[in-house]
């Protein structure tokens, strides 16, 4: 198990470095940084000064390692648009996005696992069809539409939750439901398919032959194996989650990373965009690593790999 | 015969398929006495697995079971609640594919103790002791360390031994073994059969052994049931079946057994010419008549069952025909 984890860790490190090169190249490819930093109407002299101050006249490789060193210490440079420290900017918002993402994922799993299991046990029946309809709806419904509908009902009419802002946990409920429902269908489908497969396996038949109660057969013997691909999907779905959080944070004016990413794209604020891309990619790498480890625990056969 | 441990009367299994209702088991009846080995033999597709799964209430969802009687030690197995109490406790089952019959996610030990803890109770330590003891009984060395291993770390032969040990955890009176050696290579096959025979003598276990290989059966069977196309065509003691086979199908099966000396080395395994009839819809007359060299026009009518003591067969011909 330890060797397996070390191997995955090494692989994750290589991917992370590759990502950093791409993120670095993104900023260089966006145009002349010194010109952008100097702002509009700057003289060639002031641009040259900035170029020297920021070390932009050095060879690219040297610049890359200098930048990597800065990033490693949490220094992501200056925002073109906000004219402040990128690290500070992101740090203030990352927590909100993490809460939103975590809550959405929890809602998606809490919906999709029981529903997927139910649909698999009664596959082909009315229950299965109802569950599939419910999850298809989550996919067909644009998240801005569901978000607005939830605001209409729960914020404006019932006044249970605020419509916008970032003041407390109540602000996260509606966005998390919106985002959670949005990412539920792929999980539901995977749990359902995995459970249908698992329930038809020989080892589930063995468990039934042992006279174990149905509950134990389903939740111990079948679900454990059906969850292996689901864990992998969590990592993959992070992309969908982040994409969705751009929309959802904008609707609910939730002050998070998704909203910041949206702003940095529209203002061509490349240092911010670079930092967001880098962080999201790193989060992705870490999540993949975690899912590999969880899977190795769920499925002992993987540990040998 | 002793008071039977298992009695089956007019057992039927119907499967809903796209091309119609498939009658996989067509009204079979048999008894199993305590401590005896009953072998059910027949070609692939004749309904052996459906019969065994029906007894354990493990049929696939497309299958429907009906029977006049299925009793275990006098208790009605067709009642869910009673079957639930007996299954995995007083009657156990092992399967053809030892490679897939164990759950890959849990250790051998974990899978062995769970039915014991559920049915018998006691502490986990007691259950683990019993599991180690059972592994030793089925001939697995360093049992303690095996308990911590996962199925994928074991060979096919070892896994089938584990399956047997697991089935015996609750000290059942009946073990149903559906082709337990088919997936294993020949030397391992012999070992597993030997093991079953020994365990039976030691524990007084009744065994229903299901196989398509009549040759395998000669070493272990007390009584033999020969199935063809979902029905029993002949039934008798091992001696009766091998010395005086009465049904042409049984004789064809016996002729397929490779004989040392007689059968050429490397000759293809014997098979009966012709194909098994479709099991969809009704079957009038003898199902074997397309392949039978002794068939006559009246074989298309109802065929009487002939009896000679414990020996029965379903054919127009008498025993010596
Ligand atoms: N899930 C299923 N759906 C439809 N038909 C099935 C299904 N399982 C089995 N059958 C059919 O039922 C009949 C009896 O099958 P069964 O598995 O009992 O045969 P068997 O005697 O065990 O054969 P084998 O030696 O191949 O294991 C066969 O004709 C088979 O095609
Ligand atoms: S009843 Fe007729 S066809 Fe059937 S086995 Fe006997 S002789 Fe052959
Ligand atoms: Mg079979």
UniProtKB/TrEMBL annotation, chain A:
Cell compartments where the protein resides: Cell membrane
Similarity annotation? Belongs to the binding-protein-dependent transport system permease family.
Pfam family of the protein (one)? BPD_transp_1_N
Natural source organism: Paracoccus fontiphilus
ABC transmembrane type-1 domain spans which residues?
A: 94-291
Under InterPro entries, the record lists:
BPD_transp_1_N, MetI-like, MetI-like_sf
According to UniProt, the name of this protein is ABC transporter permease
Alphabetized, the UniProt keywords read: Cell membrane, Membrane, Transmembrane, Transmembrane helix, Transport
- Mode of membrane association: Multi-pass membrane protein
Keyword check for Mitochondrion, yes or no: no
Q: Does the keyword Transmembrane apply?
A: yes
Where does the chain cross the membrane? Answer: 98-122, 134-156, 168-184, 226-252, 272-298
Automatic annotation (TrEMBL), chain B:
Q: According to its record, how does it sit in the membrane? A: Peripheral membrane protein
- InterPro entries from the UniProt entry: AAA+_ATPase, ABC_Ni/Peptide_Import, ABC_transporter-like_ATP-bd, Oligopep_ABC_C, P-loop_NTPase
Give the main localization category: membrane
Matching entries from Gene3D superfamilies are given as: P-loop containing nucleotide triphosphate hydrolases
Task: List the subcellular locations.
Answer: Cell inner membrane
Q: Does the keyword Thylakoid apply?
A: no
Alphabetically sorted, this entry's keywords are: ATP-binding, Cell membrane, Membrane, Nucleotide-binding, Transport
List residues of the ABC transporter domain.
6-254
GO terms for MF = ATP binding
Q: Does the keyword Lipid metabolism apply?
A: no
Q: Which family does it belong to?
A: Belongs to the ABC transporter superfamily.
Task: Quote the protein name from its UniProt record.
Answer: ABC transporter ATP-binding protein
Query: What organism does the record attribute this protein to?
Result: Paracoccus fontiphilus
